[in-house]
Specification:
Keywords: Membrane, Transmembrane, Transmembrane helix. It holds the Pfam family DUF7144. The chain is mostly helical. The chain contains five helices and no strands. The longest helix is centred in the first third of the chain and has 33 residues.
Length: about 140
């Protein structure tokens, strides 16, 4: 057996990048990056709609997180822009992208939770997608460990 064959090992000891676990982690990261970019684009559109037309969303009476709709619009727009930046970082496999992606998706979940009275079905849909993003990024981290 040559030295080169000894370094590679048996077929069950494939390098991480060529293993099933590595392929799954790669898919989870790609999924999370793409979904974060898509939901961030939705957040930007949602935010710009609220900034551009305060009458677009219904009035909510006596709600704990009641802000002016323009403020909600700016919150969603800024989170959306940040999410696109982080999503691209995830797709480029930058080290900071994974942890920052979990944080941005978590902030998006909180912002959409507070936005539920204004647009409940949409906010809950985005919360569910953000939960999938957090799951995919955490799964990628667990598979790489």
């Amino acid at each position: 057996m040559s030295d080169q064959q000894q370094d590679v090992g048996t077929s069950s000891e494939l390098p991480y990048e060529h293993s099933r676990k590595g392929a799954w982690a790669d898919f989870a990261g790609t999924f999370a990056g793409v979904m974060l970019i898509i939901t961030s684009c939705f957040g930007i559109l949602q935010g710009l709609a609220a900034v551009g037309n305060d009458k677009l969303y219904p009035e909510v009476a006596d709600y704990l997180y009641e802000f002016d709709l323009s403020a909600w619009g700016w919150i969603h727009t800024v989170l959306g822009l940040l999410g696109i930046f982080v999503g691209v970082g995830i797709l480029m496999r930058r080290g900071w992208g994974q942890i920052t992606g979990v944080m941005v998706a978590g902030l998006s979940m909180v912002a959409n939770f507070a936005f539920i009275p204004y647009y409940p079905f949409w906010a809950m849909t985005i919360i569910a997608i953000d939960a999938l993003i957090v799951w995919a990024l955490c799964t990628q981290y667990a598979n790489r460990a």
